[in-house]
Inverse folding.
C-alpha cells in the first residue's frame, strides 16, 4: 500500500495534534517539517522524531520528495503557502480559517484547480463523532424533515493563553470558532440563503467580538440559530463541546453536554452516549477535537488514494467562508445578507 509522504508547515500549538494524528494513520507519514521559528521547529522535530527540518518552505520543496503538504500556520500565510505547494504540483491541506478574504480563498481554489492538485481545508468540526451522530440521526428519517435547528458553542474557557493571537485580531469569535459552527450548520441543514448576525465584545482585554448570534434561512426552508460565546460563565463549562438541537416534522434531536444525544420520534425517546474516543495521545477536554483531527486526516489519505474530492475541499469551504463574511457584514450594518449558494 502506498504511504504518502507529507511535509508539514507550521509547528505551533495546533500542529501537535496534526502530528500525533499522522503518526496513527497508516497510509501517511510526515517526513519533513518547516517553521520560521527555529527553536520551535527543532523542539517539534525532536518530539516526533522528524530529522528533516526547514526554516523556509522553498527549501523544503526543493530538497524533499513529497506527496502532499499540510499547512498548519495561521491565516496570514495560507495563500502564499498553498499557492507555493500547488506550483510544486503537490496536493495541499490548509488549516482554517482558509483565507483572510473570500477573494484570496477563490484565488487559492483556482490556483489548485489549474495545477490539478487536490485542496482540502482542515475543517475538522464536522468530523466530530457527536456531530456525525446527529447527521446520521437526521438521515435515518426518524425525526422527519428538519424545520429548525440550533448549533451552539458557549464557554468561558481561556483560549488566549495557548493562542495569544486570538486576543489581538480585529475579528475573533466568528472567524475562529463560529466558522466551525457555520460549517456544521451547512453540514446538518444544507446551504443558507440568508444570514443575519449580531455580535458584541464582553471581554475588555481582547480586540475582537467574543459573542455572536446568527440566524440562517436555509435553502430547504429550515431556519437555524448558530450562536457562540467565549463570555459565558456556567457551573460546568462544556468547552469544547458543540451542542445541537434539531426539530423535525416527526420528532427532535438534542445533543446535550456530556455527549448525550436524545432522539425523540414516534417510537419514543432514545438517549445514547455519542462520546468521542479518547485516543492514546489525546487529553481532556480536547479529545473531541483531537479525534476529529485524526478523522479528517484519514479522510484526506482515503481521498488521495481514491481520487475523490475531500468533503471539505477548498471549493466546499468557500461557502463556509461566505457565511463568515456575511456574518461580519450583517453585524456591522444591521442588514440580512442574501447568499447565492443555497441549494
Ligand atoms: N481546527 C481546530 O480545531 C483548530 C484549533 C486551534 C487552531 N486552529 C488553527 O490552526 C492554525 C494554527 O494555529 P496555532 O494556534 O497552532 O498557531 P501558532 O501561532 O501556535 O503556530 C503557527 C506556526 O506557524 C509558523 N509559521 C507562520 N508562518 C510561517 C511560514 N510562512 N512558514 C513556516 N512557518 C510559519 C509560526 O512560526 C508558528 O510556529 C490557525 O489557523 C488556527 O485557526 C484550528
Amino acid at each position: 500500500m502506498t504511504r504518502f509522504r507529507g511535509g508539514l508547515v507550521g509547528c505551533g500549538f495546533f500542529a501537535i495534534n496534526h502530528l500525533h494524528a499522522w503518526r496513527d494513520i497508516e497510509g501517511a507519514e510526515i517526513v519533513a517539517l518547516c517553521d520560521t521559528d527555529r527553536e520551535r521547529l527543532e523542539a517539534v522535530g525532536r518530539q516526533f522524531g522528524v530529522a528533516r527540518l526547514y526554516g523556509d518552505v522553498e527549501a523544503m520543496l526543493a530538497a524533499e520528495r513529497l506527496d502532499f503538504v499540510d499547512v498548519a500556520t495561521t491565516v496570514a500565510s495560507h495563500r502564499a503557502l498553498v499557492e507555493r505547494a500547488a506550483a510544486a504540483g503537490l496536493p495541499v491541506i490548509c488549516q482554517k480559517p482558509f483565507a483572510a478574504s473570500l477573494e484570496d480563498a477563490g484565488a487559492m481554489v483556482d490556483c489548485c484547480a489549474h495545477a490539478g492538485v487536490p485542496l482540502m481545508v482542515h475543517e475538522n468540526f464536522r468530523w466530530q463523532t457527536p456531530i456525525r451522530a446527529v447527521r446520521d440521526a437526521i438521515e435515518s428519517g426518524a425525526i422527519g424533515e428538519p424545520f429548525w435547528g440550533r448549533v451552539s458553542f458557549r464557554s468561558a474557557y481561556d483560549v488566549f493563553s495557548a493562542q495569544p493571537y486570538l486576543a489581538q485580531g480585529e475579528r475573533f469569535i466568528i472567524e475562529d470558532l463560529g466558522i466551525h459552527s457555520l460549517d456544521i450548520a451547512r453540514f446538518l441543514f444544507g446551504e443558507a440563503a440568508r444570514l443575519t448576525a449580531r455580535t458584541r465584545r464582553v471581554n475588555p482585554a481582547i480586540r475582537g467580538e467574543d459573542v455572536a448570534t446568527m440566524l440562517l434561512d436555509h435553502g430547504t426552508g429550515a431556519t437555524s440559530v448558530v450562536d457562540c460565546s467565549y463570555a459565558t460563565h456556567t457551573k460546568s463549562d462544556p468547552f469544547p463541546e458543540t451542542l445541537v438541537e434539531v426539530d423535525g416534522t416527526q420528532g427532535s434531536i438534542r445533543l446535550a453536554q456530556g455527549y448525550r444525544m436524545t432522539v425523540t420520534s414516534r417510537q419514543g425517546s432514545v438517549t445514547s452516549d455519542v462520546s468521542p474516543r479518547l485516543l492514546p495521545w489525546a487529553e481532556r477536554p480536547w479529545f473531541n477535537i483531537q479525534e476529529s483531527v485524526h478523522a479528517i486526516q484519514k479522510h484526506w489519505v482515503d481521498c488521495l488514494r481514491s481520487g475523490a474530492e475531500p468533503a471539505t475541499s477548498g471549493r466546499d469551504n468557500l461557502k463556509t467562508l461566505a457565511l463568515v463574511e456575511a456574518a461580519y457584514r450583517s453585524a456591522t450594518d444591521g442588514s440580512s445578507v442574501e447568499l447565492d449558494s443555497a441549494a
Observations:
- The longest strand covers residues 146-154.
